[in-house]
Amino acid sequence: MKKIYNISILILALSLASCGEDFLSPDPISAVGAAGYFTTEGQLETGVINIYDGMQGVNTTGNNSNRAVQLEFYLSEMRSDNTRTKSSEGEAAQFENFTIEPSNGIIADYYRSMYAIIFKANTVLENLGVGGSSAGQFEGEAKFARAYAYFQLVRLYGDVPLIDAIVGPLETEKQFTRVSTDQIYNLIVSDLGTAAANLDNTYKTRASKAAAQALLAKVHLTLGNYSEARSLCESVVGSGFALEANFKDVFYNEGNNEVIFAIGYKADDANDSQNFSAEWLNAVGRTTGVNYPTDEAVAALDASGGNRAAYSYRVDKLQPIHHQVVKYLPDGDESLGIAATSGNPTLAGNDFIVLRYADVLLMHAEAILAGGAQTNDAAALSSYNAVRARAGIAESQLITKEDLLNERRVELAFENQRLFDLIRFGVAQNVLSEFATNNGFAFSATDLLLPIPDGEIGLSNGVLTQNPGY
Questions:
Q1: What is the CA radius of gyration of the chain?
Q2: Rounded Cα distance, 421 and 411, in Å
Q3: Are 342 and 59 in contact (CB under 8 A)?
Q4: Angle at 439 between CA 434 and CA 443, to 5 degrees
Q5: What is the three-class DSSP state of 427?
Q6: Does an H or E element contain 49, and which?
Q7: Which residues of 281-316 are buried (b: 16+ CB within 10 A; e: fewer)?
Q8: How many Å separate Cα 267 from the centre of its chain?
């Protein structure tokens, strides 16, 4: 559950990024703006807490609400071969059948949410002078958050505007000019390097040294910098984390030894809870069910998931022809020994895990594979087999690229990793084309990037350009 709570009155003075259509230079909603508010170390820490509040997102089903990570499954899992909607209706269905429109409210909300996080981080970074002895820590946390938001944006939307400082309302070129992914990645790598240098491993729902290293390892894998990724993974491996003996405990024993960084939530609290896990269910959430496992994902888990399958999906109790995601169940499941996490599932307290140790072990094997077809390297096998052993699966003496991709699929199912893995492994075009054909969808290479929200293009007066294919 969430370890970081809102400081409500102070946060009102800081939540500027959630108001107005132009979220990069929003209109003040309080007489106390950032320039006048930050005068002490304690006040600057409220600004840091506000960054994590932005990561949490707002618990609502309405668009244009900065829902942040609570929307992420649409843009990642449902654009892969892992999940779908139950009813194939509305804006949600655009993700499963690769027909996303630039007017889609979900992509606009997520885009805006990531820039809201960036704005909050930039606000802290511009006020480090009052941070006292904690200035280095606050800088590390803010830069971790900014790098996290940009890493999501650049992988989902491609070239995006680079905002590395507070911008004024008239700085439209800065706000809306898309820059190359290389420039975005340069900032991400720099920010995560600073975060890793400035932080320790005190927290799991705030940025830490290991979180920065693990995220930077994933960035380097994305860029093809395998030796850098390997070194970072090995640093995390030596930092005291461990696989949970029971796969279920990863998700239902929060703050456990496997969690490196999670976005924290507090049950039965309108301000600090989440509803995404309820929306995955039928007759519990406020939708008809989204993020349902595909037949292909179920087949992969049945074949290779081992004891992970039971804690990854289950049969929909109301309609047995469908399957539901088990990870993060808010209403419990007696047959699986999972207790309800909140009195009201739409006010769920399940933390969302962004980085965990099993992911790092598999990234370590990936870094050693280094884009090759296979490896029998002892260090790679040690990391790879540790994850498989926990699942009750026999050790392997050889790792192929296909084996590793499949292992990531069944270990990290429904954790918003699949699409990015397919792209990073260079097989997204083939896998998703075959998946689309088998399910009556039409997929093309341009579908690997989301459209830039048309509302943002309108605000830019033509400065912001659209991605190909939209």
A1: 21
A2: 12
A3: no
A4: 55
A5: coil
A6: helix 41-56
A7: bbebbebebbbbbbebbbebbeebbbebbbbbbbeb
A8: 20
Q: Cα dist. 148→115, 161, 184, 191 in Å?
A: 11, 15, 11, 9
Q: Is 315 helix (H, G, I), strand (E, B) or coil?
A: strand
The reported pLDDT for the residue numbered 157 is 98
- Euclidean distance between the first and the last CA atom of the chain, given in angstroms as a whole number: 40
What pLDDT, on the 0 to 100 scale, is given for residue 287? 65
As a whole number of angstroms, the distance between CA 304 and CA 323 comes to 17
Query: Could you tell me the pTM of the whole model?
Result: 0.93
CA distances (Å), origin 28, targets 14, 16, 116, 141: 9, 6, 14, 24
Task: Report domain extents, the chain.
Answer: 10-199+440-470, 265-350
Residues in Cβ contact with 293 at an 8 Å cutoff, skipping those fewer than 6 apart: 82, 83, 84, 301, 312, 313, 323, 324, 325, 413, 414
- The architecture (CATH level 2) of 10-199+440-470 comes to Alpha Horseshoe (1.25)
Q: Which residue has the tokens 């929003």?
A: 26
pLDDT by 10-residue block (mean), the chain, 470 residues: 40 38 35 73 98 96 87 98 92 96 97 98 98 98 98 98 93 94 98 98 98 99 98 98 98 97 96 94 74 97 98 93 95 95 94 98 99 98 98 98 98 98 98 98 97 96 95
* Residues 444/186/364/69 CA torsion (nearest 10 deg): -60
